[in-house]
Amino acid sequence: DHFNFFNVYFPNGQMSAERLEYKLDFYEKFFEYTDSLKNEGRSLIITGDYNTAHNEIDLKNPKTNQNTSGFLRIERDWLDRITQKGYVDTFRHFFPDTVKYSWWTYRFKARDRNVGWRIDYFFVTEDMIKKGWIKEAFIENNILGSDHCPIGLVLEM
């Protein structure tokens, strides 16, 4: 048994039409490629900074960020599409109702006040869940050193 592992930095939309288009195009092309591997029967792990909070639980202030890049409906629709294609958000798989963030702006003492976003993910193909390979997913939000914190996955094959 084996799998393909991708650690990806997905572009930031940066509140401009050009950057948003670039970000969405990047999602499109990347998932065309991974879908082709998935369709060949390969198991995939895709981790990294997706620069998008998927659902309201994934950021502290969803109502005030509806028009902010990283929580635009069009960006969130992409994460919906990923799950509809058969990829599983491992943290939500284990913790469907847990509020935990992986990124905080350096401004406004956001981390001290835990005003964050969960924009870093491990998505895996459904077969890895069904085979029981994914044992745990976690966010180490107590580790400092960056505006992001480490996220992790325990895999046993």
TrEMBL record:
GO BP of this protein: base-excision repair
Record InterPro entries: AP_endonuc_1 (IPR004808), AP_endonuclease_F1_CS (IPR020848), Endo/exonu/phosph_ase_sf (IPR036691), Endo/exonuclease/phosphatase (IPR005135)
GO molecular function, one term: metal ion binding
The organism of origin for this protein: marine sediment metagenome
Cofactor(s) the protein requires to work: Mn(2+); Mg(2+)
Protein name (Swiss-Prot/TrEMBL): Endonuclease/exonuclease/phosphatase domain-containing protein
Family to which the UniProt record says this protein belongs: Belongs to the DNA repair enzymes AP/ExoA family.
UniProt lineage: unclassified sequences, metagenomes, ecological metagenomes
Domain Endonuclease/exonuclease/phosphatase, chain residue ranges per copy: 12-148
Keywords for this protein: Hydrolase, Magnesium, Metal-binding
